[in-house]
Amino acid sequence: MTTFKELESAEAGTTQPLAQVLDMLPYNDQGLIAAVAQDVNTRQVLMMAWMDRTAIERTLAEGYACYYSRSRNTYWRKGETSGHLQKLVELRFDCDGDAILLVVEQTGPACHTNRDSCFYLLVDGDCIRVTEDPG
Amino acid sequence: MTTFKELESAEAGTTQPLAQVLDMLPYNDQGLIAAVAQDVNTRQVLMMAWMDRTAIERTLAEGYACYYSRSRNTYWRKGETSGHLQKLVELRFDCDGDAILLVVEQTGPACHTNRDSCFYLLVDGDCIRVTEDPG
To answer: Which of A16, A65, A103, B87 is the most buried (most CB within 10 A)?
Structure first.
């Protein structure tokens, strides 16, 4: 099996079976990997959440982002109740496999506060400042 | 003290002392918060790493991204040896404070493999595919 270390020197176009990659992901002690979602159109970073192997497989099979909720201990298809779904465009792993980038078509706001992005708290000098009204 | 929960309904322009926010961040059991870096010019998501309170304070004071290395148990100013520094443009927290977004001016490639971004492993059907040659 090719390791992440070996893939570091691989040329563009090199492939490896996805199942092998899912086997060798460095899941944390809760079995999770950090996942970041980015809007394919605005290129805005929308949110960070967590995925386990099943959440990754569901996301790929269903074509919509599915995360694992640490607070509720359950799978959570983003937008399942709000309708603010994230249609998957690309799923990427980083060089050591401990982070996932989801490039998505975001329907509606990504944040549960109905702001476009969860990252609305900006450091401004010795304060943080809210940069967007809640929806 | 205003909590993240209370800030959810705050209008744009609302401020809160940074020191209070740093006190109430939900650091994990290693004292860390996940941090994502995005290139201010290309809008590409570059990498994910970890920061503790000191790394956040150093990043803000020095104006360059400083992470905490879990494998080496040490602070790590990104690019300190490679020269591939990340000049800070914006530092943002998400709605519940468990993720940081660094918008940066990236000098050179962000990845230690000399690729522009660490996210070069793309899921393509039942494989992953390397999308960029190493530098």
So the answer is: A65
pLDDT digits (tens, 9 = 90+) for B43-95: 999 999 999 999 999 999 999 999 999 889 999 999 999 999 999 999 999 99
Contact A34 B47 (CB under 8 A): no
Shortest distance, CA A3 to any CA of chain B (angstroms): 12
Cα–Cα distance list, B15 to A61, A99, A135, B57 (Å): 42, 31, 18, 18
| DSSP three-state, residue A53 | helix
Q: Cα separations (Å) of B51 from A9, A68, B8, B21, B25?
A: 27, 22, 23, 15, 11
Confidence label for B2 from pLDDT (cuts 50, 70 and 90): confident
A15 vs B: CB within 8 A: yes
Distance CA B10, CA B5 (A): 10
CB atoms closer than 10 angstroms to residue B4: 18
Q: Which of B15, B38, B132 sits opposite A45 (nearest CB)?
A: B38
Q: Which of A45, A85, A93 is nearest to A66 (CA)?
A: A85
